[in-house]
Structure formats: structure tokens, C-alpha cells
Design goal:
It is a single chain. The chain is an alpha/beta fold. Helix 3 links the parallel strand 1 and strand 2. It is built from 19 helices and 22 strands. The two termini are 51 Å apart. The radius of gyration is 26 Å and the shape is globular. It has a 9-stranded mixed sheet. A 4-stranded antiparallel sheet has the order 11-19-15-17.
Length: 513
């Protein structure tokens, strides 16, 4: 299977070392039968066979892809797990489900869930496929059985995972969870959570947690946590929640609405540089200025973004379409008009620009620090950048600046690390819901202009981390936080940042413990 096919289908086979580690922490009692519902290269089943000394008849692998058995000699069923016989029952189930996002989940899992009608559980339509796998595994797990799973970080990073954790806590005697902060798969940077759920059918759940960067038992320090902590993302990341109650603190969504940008469907056709406009004899003033990349969000104000950070979007209307006939014909010759988003428009070559331009923009993906940029130049953006619309058009410039500064402070960045999702190579992917729910500090106090200029200058120099230090100190001073609270917030933020980005990525805030 090629790397491209693996990524498209979320297929990442479990390394032997990780499989052995997962099984080593399963209960010692020998199971009668073991199932892996997404068996891949059989590493989990072979690790189970080695640990327990099982016969071939006791091992069952299921996978909808036909796979070479290699050294595996147990049973193998080439079938979609969601069409697997419900009557089959196992004492131990081990699984590393495919990494498939909610919008790409196959119909079979949705059909299965609709027919199953789980009592006391409501599944979000945005749920990734691992949720369906875990729920169906419960159907096949015998009473007092064990379910051991390798799951993505979305297990504690998404809103819908809260309901999943609540449901699991009501069905097992003990749950152990280990958060791994480094990647352990050779073909994906995806970070994982290891989950051992023991004693199905007993709701008197004891939950134990640990966080580590390797698979050594020497680093394993399980800590018992309360059930309410099991439902809290802070506890599962090993940090304490922010508790500072200060006037002026609210969620970002109280001030702004967040929407995705334009979806061109054929960006190369619609979006041009100034030189490209000259080649096709179109004047910049006839187009709409547009931002197309997160890296273009590199200043406090759009007017301060370098010239090459802004592009031009063609504005083709019924009145001027004749000027673009040749250009349109060239695009149709390479089937731009057949693309899904283009087909959804009345005229594929006409973008639906909003009447109101965004008040600001916000980073959609951030490798280090996300940023809010005020739109003082009446430009628009594509869907690779978030549009920000202020709920109060008369929000003062001081309030707008406070929102920007707060978003750059450890106070708000702590929330970003908790509520956004880790994506790709340690990139923070900030969905609109996460952005709306981030806490911000926006007091009535006038903002100090020299602080704005100092922070803006650091950003334009490409030194966002230094800007974070200045913004954090300014926010903390204005909040009048005690030293102990400052230390707790910056330590929590740094711990989350290191979990995502790796050791050595702490920011020095100059606070001595």
C-alpha cells in the first residue's frame, strides 16, 4: 500500500514495539478469544499471542482490506467491521482504529450506529471513526472483558469526546489512560493516547492517568483521578485549569463571530499576484484584495503586512464577464468548472463576495503561536484563514487591541492549546468553535499605545515568542494577578506547548518558581 493511499484512508499500522507495550499492560488472566477489528499487519494479535500463549483458534483478525498474513496464523476475516457478526464475543479486544475524520467516515458505520440506538448516548455527527470502532467493540466484549486501544489525541481534544469518556466511565471497573507526547508511528506525526479499559459491566470506575514521551515503564507514573477529572481536558493533559476570576474575562465569541473565508474551488484561477494581473491586462482596482495563507497573518494590522502577503481575487460579474471570456475558456479547458465548489455556484467563475468585509482575521493553523490581525485595509480571505466579525461594530479600538493582546498572552494561549486540535506535524488546528470558546481578557482600561507598538514590532520582525512574553506580562499586570497565579498559568501553557511541539519549545517568561 502506498503512503498516499495510507493517508487518504487513515491506515497506519501499529509498530511491533507499540503493540507489545499495549499488551504488556493488559490483565494477566489468559483470555479465551482475542479480536482486533482493524488488524492491519497483525502486530497487536501477534503481541497478544506471545503474551498469553494463545492457539490459532483463539485469535481473530478483521480488516476490510485483504492483507498478507505473513507470520500470523490465526483466524482472519476480510470484512468491514461494521458488518461483523454481532453474536461474536471476546474476552479481550485490542485495536488501533483507522485515522478517518468525521466527514469521511464510511456509510456502514453510520448505518450501524443508527440501528444500534445506544441508550444514554448521543453521538456527534462530527465524530471521527475511532468512536464508532470503540462503541462496536463494546458490543463484542464479554462481561468482565478488557478493551485496549490506541486512539488519536482527539480522544481528549474534541467536544464530542467528552460524551465518549462519560459513556466509557459508566461501563468499566478500571480505566487507565496514557497520553504519549511524541509520535510513535514511522509514517505519520499523529500522536496517540493508550487506553486500557478493564472489567466491562462494572460502573464503579477507577480512572488512572499518566503522561509520557516514551514507552518505558520507568517513566510510567499512573495517578488516580476522580471521575469529574476524567471528563476534564485539563486533567487529561496533566495541567490545572485556570481559576483566576477577573473582571473583563469572557469568551472570544462574546465579542466576535467566526466564519470561514471564501471557498474558491479553483484558487489558481481566481487568485492572482499583481504581476499576473498585468499579464492578463486586469487592473488591481478591478479586483478584491485577498489573503490566502495563514503565514500572511504576520502583523497586527493588514496595512502592515508585506506587499507579497496580499493577493487579488478576480471579481467577475454579469456586467464585465465579456472581458474574461478567453480566461474562462482556458480554465474550462482544464476542467476548473467541473470542480465541486465551482459546480455549486450559478456561474462557476463568479465568487460570492460578502457585502461586509471581515473586521479581522485569525490564524486557522499555527505551528507556534496563532495571531489575530485587524482588517484596516478592507481585504477578504479564502477559507485557509478565519474571518472575524465583531458583534458590536462600534467596539472601540482599545477593546480591539485588548482582544489582540490577550490572544497573544499565555492566558488565552493556554486555552488554545486545550481547545484546538493537534494536526499534522504538531500544527495547532483552530476550528471556529474552539476559537469562539477561547477565554480572553478585554478590560475597559485604555490600552497603552507603546505596548501595542512594541508587540506589533516584534511580530513584524518574526519574533512571535518575544511578543507573547511582552503581551503576557502586560495582561498579567493589568489583571493584577499574584505571582503564584502567573506561574501556574505560564507553567500550564508551557507544558501543553511542549506536549504538542516537543521538548525545547518552552517560552521563558522570566518568572522564577
Amino acid at each position: 500500500m502506498t503512503r498516499l493511499v495510507k493517508h487518504r484512508n487513515g491506515v497506519f499500522y501499529t509498530p511491533a514495539e507499540l503493540a507489545t507495550y499495549l499488551l504488556s499492560h493488559c490483565p494477566d488472566g489468559k483470555p479465551r478469544r482475542v479480536l482486533d477489528p482493524a488488524c492491519g499487519e497483525f502486530s497487536l494479535l501477534m503481541a497478544a499471542s506471545k503474551k498469553y500463549g494463545l492457539s490459532n483458534e483463539q485469535l481473530v483478525g478483521c480488516d476490510k482490506r485483504r492483507i498478507r498474513k505473513n507470520n500470523y496464523s490465526g483466524e482472519y476475516c476480510c470484512k468491514d467491521f461494521f458488518k461483523f457478526e454481532d453474536k461474536e464475543e471476546f474476552d479481550l479486544i485490542v485495536t488501533n482504529p483507522p485515522y478517518v475524520k468525521g466527514d469521511r467516515c464510511p456509510k456502514s458505520c453510520r448505518v450501524w450506529y443508527a440501528e444500534r440506538k445506544l441508550e444514554g448516548f448521543t453521538l456527534s455527527k462530527r465524530a471521527d471513526i475511532w468512536v464508532y470502532f470503540i462503541l462496536k467493540c463494546l458490543d463484542h466484549l464479554a462481561d468482565s472483558g478488557t478493551l485496549a486501544a490506541i486512539l488519536p489525541w482527539s480522544f481528549f481534544q474534541t467536544d464530542y469526546s467528552l460524551e465518549v469518556r462519560r459513556y466509557l466511565a459508566a461501563h468499566f471497573k478500571r480505566i487507565d489512560v496514557q497520553v504519549l507526547t511524541t509520535a510513535h508511528f514511522s509514517d505519520t506525526p499523529q500522536k496517540v493516547v493508550l487506553l486500557w479499559m478493564v472489567g466491562k459491566g462494572d460502573s464503579r470506575t477507577e480512572v488512572r492517568y499518566c503522561c509520557s514521551d516514551n514507552l518505558s515503564d520507568d517513566a510510567l507514573r499512573f495517578v488516580k483521578i476522580k471521575n469529574e477529572q476524567w471528563l476534564d481536558a485539563c486533567s487529561l493533559r496533566g495541567v490545572k485549569p485556570q481559576s483566576a476570576k477577573v473582571s473583563g474575562v469572557s469568551t472570544f465569541g462574546a465579542y466576535c463571530d467566526v466564519k470561514i473565508g471564501l471557498v474558491p474551488g479553483a484558487t489558481k484561477f481566481f487568485v492572482r499576484t499583481k504581476d499576473q494581473l498585468t499579464d492578463i491586462k486586469i487592473k488591481p482596482c478591478e479586483c478584491v484584495k485577498i489573503i490566502t495563507q495563514c503565514k500572511s497573518i504576520s502583523a497586527f494590522d493588514v496595512s502592515r503586512i508585506p506587499v507579497d502577503g496580499v493577493r487579488y481575487a478576480l471579481k467577475i460579474t454579469a456586467k464585465n464577464v465579456d472581458r474574461y471570456r478567453e480566461l474562462i475558456a482556458d480554465a474550462e479547458a482544464v476542467d476548473y468548472h467541473k470542480r465541486s465548489h465551482c459546480k455549486n455556484r450559478k456561474n462557476w467563475y463568479s465568487l460570492d463576495f460578502p457585502e461586509r468585509v471581515p473586521d479581522a482575521f485569525f490564524t486557522y493553523r499555527a505551528s507556534s503561536v496563532p495571531l489575530m490581525t485587524l482588517n484596516d485595509a478592507a481585504v477578504d480571505c479564502t477559507n485557509s484563514v478565519h474571518r472575524i466579525f465583531l458583534r458590536d461594530n462600534d467596539l472601540s479600538i482599545d477593546k480591539r487591541r485588548w482582544l489582540q493582546i490577550s490572544m497573544l498572552s499565555a492566558y488565552s494561549l493556554f486555552d488554545f492549546e486545550l481547545k484546538a486540535r493537534t494536526y499534522g506535524k504538531n500544527v495547532l488546528k483552530i476550528e471556529p468553535t474552539a476559537l469562539r470558546n477561547v477565554r480572553v481578557y478585554c478590560p475597559d482600561t485604555p490600552v497603552r499605545r507603546e505596548k501595542v507598538e512594541e508587540i506589533a514590532g516584534l511580530i513584524e520582525q518574526g519574533n512571535k515568542e518575544a511578543a507573547v512574553v511582552v503581551a503576557t506580562a502586560y495582561v498579567f499586570d493589568t489583571m493584577k494577578l499574584s505571582k503564584a497565579k502567573r506561574i501556574r498559568i505560564v507553567d500550564g501553557y508551557n507544558r501543553l506547548r511542549v506536549q504538542r511541539m516537543g521538548a525545547g519549545n518552552e517560552i521563558d517568561f522570566g518568572l522564577e518558581t
